[in-house]
Amino acid sequence: MSASTRPGGSSMSEIGDSRLMQIIGIFRRAAKKRNEILKEDLIDAVEEFARYSSLRGLPENSLNMVIDILTAPSKLDQATIAAIVKHLYPRSKVPEDVVVKVVGCFGQGQSRPTHATQALLLRWLVMVYDVLEGHNMLSQLYGLLFNFLNMISLRTHICHLLSLLTRRKHVKPFRIQALLELKRIIGNEQPLLGLLQIYKDYYPDIIVERLPPTKAGLFSHPNPEWMRKLLVIQEVNAVNSLVGSEKSSFQVVRKHGSQGGKRRKTGHLTVPEVHTYRAVESSVTLEEIGNIDDFVAKLDKLELPNQLAAVIEDPLLQKLLDLKFSETDQQRISNWLAAYLSCIVGGGAEERLLKRLLEYTNHTKNLLPAIESYLRKCLKTYIDPKQLDQVLDLLAFLPIRAFKELYVNYFALIDSILCANNIRLIGFYTRLLRNWVLLYSSQLQSSALSNDIEDTIIYYMRHVGSLIVKALRGSRQVTSSALAFYEVVASFPAKDSTFRLVLPPDSLVYHSLFAGDALSLSRLCGILAKYKWNAEESRKLSLSSLNNSWEPYSRAIIDHLNGIVMDIVNCIWRNRALSTADNSLGCNIPQELTKKYGEIANSREEDLRQLYSLTRSTALARYSKEVFSALETRDSIDIFNRHRGPLTQESLKILAAAGGLNTPWREFKKEALKDLEGRGLVGLPELMYSVLAVFSTE
């Protein structure tokens, strides 16, 4: 008979918190008096407990109750105790009072549980170390735990627990002497050697004895599968667990042995761990920092670790280097990376290494020379398609330098690799430009290299513009990526002489205008509105007595920008599509072709000038119609007197005369612009408000 159908048992779905309390009550009674509970009932209770805990985890109060039972002398047989301890899955982080109870039950005496139970609880404490609510209490109990090294049944896991807890403040001469004496008595016991090695790492001058090597995985987690299951349980219960939660970067759990040791393996890469050797008593090391208060209080006294390459994986060291930046430290990190990356043949770097390098570069916003050199080698040899995104994300932090150098070493190769994926290619150039604006816009205004950098920016945008023109010929899907690029351009600081606007290609402008997509049209108008504002600010700066050296944009650029804007205004607002009057460009369509289009429209009883207006264009007509219908509903217009067909100025006059909604044409268009704003299509209204005189007084 299966456990799920055993008489008196419950199915997994039926086990609730109330039943859990009953089960714990059975354990308590069985622990106090032998044969108080029938053996079959106790087996059923253990199985139900195991199912409940494995599925939902134990609440804090239930965990406390079970620990109370296990840490006291008990009549339960050892197999039952082992089964209970095996399924002690805490639903949330383990509180410190549980830790105190467990440690408090260790030792000799009739008031203690059996040595086997003590060993099981100690092993469990090691397994839940990473999900403890805090480690301060355990640290305070360090001396007590150290004294249990003489107990054979506890020594292995005591060494493991001490290896996780040990910081420089714990390493005292009398403890070193005690460990060496214990080694002399019991011999080269692996856990003891591992703990001694940790002590020696802190004070190599005191422990001069050469220690035998320890085996790999000495202080690894006793049951990784159990830990994975625990983390899943805590995630399901939406608790701040070790995995899936935002961990404070000031609570870095540094482990020794194979759980971290001196070095951590990232694929085939061995990353040094944060460790400060030959520290003196008065100094403060990163290993001793437990929270943000410690970090701030001891910032001036903090010493950098011996291996700065640990910064790749250690967030606390990253913050320390941010605050104590020096070119020498950066060069040390770059040299370490160069030594490792130079060993990679054919660009076959481990994926996790690239991920770590990307995380570090994202944090510093600075591409180290060693990484840059390696990426250049990758571009010239081979890039694993699975790693291409990470390589491109790293290259998006390339520093500004002469455009020719950038083009030969990077851009030409990237263009070739991504020639079949224009969206991905333009996306890369957009990220690179955004990073340049963020990093350099405030740094180069007084730089002697400013003029050279300005030329690089201009050549760069022309290069991307030419790629966009070619891409538009083959695909319309590239429009969104292209507009994203020019949204970055439009965000250039107006008072920065380094980043000067370059107009988007005419083909992109008119493609977005006539494509029939309201979002693309709105984004284009938003870009041009920002261009207009930036150009006006530049003109004001050139006229300011404080900026005599400021050069405004050339007349040719301003005239072309105004021409593009007037084309859009003519199409959408003035019902003069493709006109060349008032400095308009006529959308760059030859007059002979415009005349032919007009004849075709006339043959269909249409007016070419109105076909791209706010109420007639394929991108905006639906929204305008919905606005007008809403106005009719608001005024309770009879259904028979409502407007039908496309909206025009003439049709509104006829409608008003027939008893329909009477609203001025201009006022209706203003309502249509407000509606577009409400829909999130703010670019078109912004452009109209900034250009049209009708809005200048509003």
TrEMBL record:
<dbReference type="GO" id="GO:0000939">
    <property type="term" value="C:inner kinetochore"/>
</dbReference>
<keyword id="KW-0137">Centromere</keyword>
<keyword id="KW-0158">Chromosome</keyword>
<dbReference type="GO" id="GO:0034080">
    <property type="term" value="P:CENP-A containing chromatin assembly"/>
</dbReference>
<dbReference type="GO" id="GO:0000070">
    <property type="term" value="P:mitotic sister chromatid segregation"/>
</dbReference>
<comment type="similarity">
    <text>Belongs to the CENP-I/CTF3 family.</text>
</comment>
<protein>
    <submittedName>
        <fullName>Mis6-domain-containing protein</fullName>
    </submittedName>
</protein>
<keyword id="KW-0539">Nucleus</keyword>
<dbReference type="InterPro" id="IPR012485">
    <property type="entry name" value="CENP-I"/>
</dbReference>
<dbReference type="Pfam" id="PF07778">
    <property type="entry name" value="CENP-I"/>
</dbReference>
<dbReference type="GO" id="GO:0005634">
    <property type="term" value="C:nucleus"/>
</dbReference>
